[in-house]
Design brief:
The chain folds into two domains: 2-260, 3-Layer(aba) Sandwich (Rossmann fold), CATH 3.40.50.300; 265-348, Immunoglobulins (Immunoglobulin-like). Helix content is 34%, strand content 22%. The protein has helices spanning 15-28, 43-47, 51-54, 61-69, 75-78, 97-103, 113-118, 139-147, 160-179, 197-210, 223-230, 235-238, 243-256, and strands spanning 2-6, 33-37, 80-81, 88-91, 128-132, 150-155, 184-189, 265-273, 280-284, 298-299, 304-312, 315-322, 325-327, 335-337, 343-348. Helix 1 (15-28) packs across helix 13.
Length: 349
């Protein structure tokens, strides 16, 4: 079973809508699909019209409750299968998930609980699992990322979404260093309205920053999607002939085929500890040594400056520009003397 989590710490970017309708598209394409609502707000549960049916029944909270109690999860009781939705299984959520988030902090193997649940033989007939994660990077989202083969990040028409990009990469880098897990990460323009210059500029910036990791399909803004969620339906149940339904079919087909892509680019994290700096840029051969907003690092909560950039494979010289001072990368021992008599850091991507 291939596991895909939909994650972004920014709220309002259409994360739940994307998870629900990609799961529905996969099911309609003939793949047996499980949707797991891992958000205590239970938006995916509401969007599928399961609020009354899920009241008093087992939910995704019981995945973690079983782990706390050292018992087997109640697989059959929590997995809802509707006769009206072929190939579609669903694990609902409720507010009790918030207590699981709190209690996971002191538990051994806290990030891998969901992965062990999905690896059980009960789900051996499923082709895909789609996880709708909460808008934060707590233990619930870590569970979603740990279990995932692919992480899908929706980006709406806001530059705040770009903050989420770096945070997703930082969390997955930490996940990789701690557990060896290395899920693929792809991005999708969501709630897109291409009529404004602002929207088109965000799209250009996203393409420059993410390259082929930005999927070509855009999910256009549509009142039909909002109507579908209100009535507890997928877009294919509400209006299968709408352009919104076509967008979700197209993006789902693109996601299914991401595994056959041959990437000639890599994503590189740059990080510098400079808590007193007013601004920090990373400049090098890969961006023409040009100071521009796209090359500016973001100040992190730790006081460090960091950012992720998509680079063509190759070898590059680079430095940090800290306010008006050039600084070689202190975390990178590879360096070479330049024509100015100083040293540039060397990156092999």
């Amino acid at each position: 079973m291939k596991v895909i989590s939909v994650a972004n710490q920014k709220g309002g970017c259409g994360k739940t809508t994307m998870a629900v309708n990609i799961a529905a598209a996969l099911a309609r394409m003939g793949s047996k699909t499980l949707l797991v609502d891992l958000d205590p707000q239970a938006h995916a549960t509401y969007a599928l019209g399961y609020t009354l049916e899920s009241a008093g029944r087992k939910t995704s909270y019981d995945i973690f409750r079983a782990h706390f109690d050292s018992v087997d999860p109640p697989f059959e009781e929590m997995t809802m299968v509707s006769k009206e939705r072929d190939n579609f299984g669903f694990v609902p959520a409720n507010m009790m998930l918030s207590t699981a988030e709190i209690n996971l902090g002191g538990v051994n193997g806290a990030a891998s609980v969901l992965d062990r649940f999905l690896s059980n033989g009960y789900f051996e007939d499923y082709d895909y699992a789609i996880i709708d994660s909460p808008p934060s990077f707590g233990f619930l989202t870590l569970n979603a990322m740990y279990a995932s083969d692919t992480i899908l990040v929706p980006i709406d028409l806001s530059y705040f979404s770009f903050n989420g990009i770096s945070n997703v990469y930082r969390v997955t880098s930490l996940l990789n260093s701690e557990t060896g897990r290395d899920p693929s990460i792809y991005f999708v323009m969501n709630i897109y309205d291409g009529r404004s210059n602002f929207a088109r500029q965000i799209e250009i910036d996203a393409q420059q920053k993410l390259g082929p990791y930005m999927l070509s399909t855009k999910i256009r803004s549509s009142v039909r999607i909002r109507e579908a969620a209100k009535f507890g339906r997928t877009i294919f149940e509400h209006d299968p002939k709408s352009f919104a339904a076509l967008d979700f079919y197209n993006v789902t087909s693109e996601i299914v085929n991401t595994g056959v892509r041959e990437m000639d680019v890599v994503v590189k994290e740059f990080c510098l500890d400079a808590p007193q700096a007013g601004e920090v840029y990373v400049l090098g051969d890969f961006n023409g040594w040009q100071k521009a907003e796209n090359n500016r690092l973001a100040r992190l909560e730790t006081g460090e400056w960091g950012g992720h950039f998509t680079l063509n494979k190759g070898q590059y010289r680079y430095k940090f520009l800290v306010d008006d001072t050039w600084v070689a990368d202190p975390s990178n021992p590879a360096c070479e003397k330049n024509i100015f008599g100083t040293a540039d850091s060397i990156l092999t991507a």
